[in-house]
Amino acid sequence: MAAVFMAVFIFGWIYPILGFFIPLCMILGIGIGLFKGRKFCDWYCPRGSFYDAWFKSLSPQRKIPALFKNIYFRLGVLLFLMAVMVVNLFYRWPNPINIGMFFVIMMTSTTVLGVGLALFFHQRSWCSFCPVGTIANLAGRNKFSLMINSQDCNECKACAKVCPIQIEPYKFKKTGIREVKDFDCLKCGTCVAACPKKALSF
Ligand code: SF4
Ligand code: SF4
């Protein structure tokens, strides 16, 4: 998927019609979000895959700022980008080349921002407040949830170390089997595989 993203990122400037790949991804991300939360953001998302594939080794792996995960900040980003999209669609309608070019510009500018954040904080910093991720977070709550067996967990923190979006599943243990109530979980299963006590499951 990272290669697909790179192709659209480069050739979209020559063939703006490729820009329609972006709303297609948005619809897919939100659609999957209704049933499986942020599952799309794992490797189905071309941009998320691009950040993981190209910037994981380049990122200093700093903590993603709490502001980026703040719901009000995220809703602000969502509303701002939606407003920009609606205004542009209004003025560019019905020319498909102009509309495609808008999506290419929007993808390029937000990706450049995400690359900057990857190089300064963490490769998935952008994903913490990506509008599609925010909608999937809100729409997919309590769907396909990661569960923790509190009795089995010994708080070794191996799960937190491998999580691509810096979730700390062990912090949700209390008594019995509990839902890991962090709705930014990408459902990637990396922590499930890493847990030496088999305390995590979907
Ligand atoms: S890896 Fe497993 S045992 Fe270790 S803290 Fe996480 S859930 Fe608990
Ligand atoms: S590592 Fe675990 S908590 Fe982190 S995104 Fe993947 S499934 Fe969710």
- The percentage of residues in β strands lies in under 5%
Widest β-sheet, arrangement of strands? 2-1-3
What is the count of β-strands?
Answer: 3
Biggest sheet descriptor: 3 strands, antiparallel
Task: Return the average pLDDT rounded to an integer.
Answer: 95
Number of helices: 9
Low-confidence stretches: none
What class do helices, strands and sheet pairing give? mainly alpha
Please state the overall shape, judged from the principal axes of the Cα atoms.
Answer: elongated
Distance between the termini: 24 Å
Number of domains: 2
Bound small molecules, deduplicated: iron/sulfur cluster
Rg on CA atoms, Å: 18 Å
Quick structural gist:
The chain has 202 residues and is mostly helical. It is built from 9 helices and 3 strands.
Please outline the helices and strands:
Elements: H1 2-11, H2 21-36, H3 46-55, H4 66-69, H5 71-92, H6 96-120, H7 131-139, E1 147-149, H8 158-162, E2 177-179, H9 190-194, E3 200-201
Antiparallel strand pairs: 1-2, 1-3
Helix pairs in contact: 1-3, 2-7, 5-6, 5-7
The structure holds iron/sulfur cluster (2 copies).
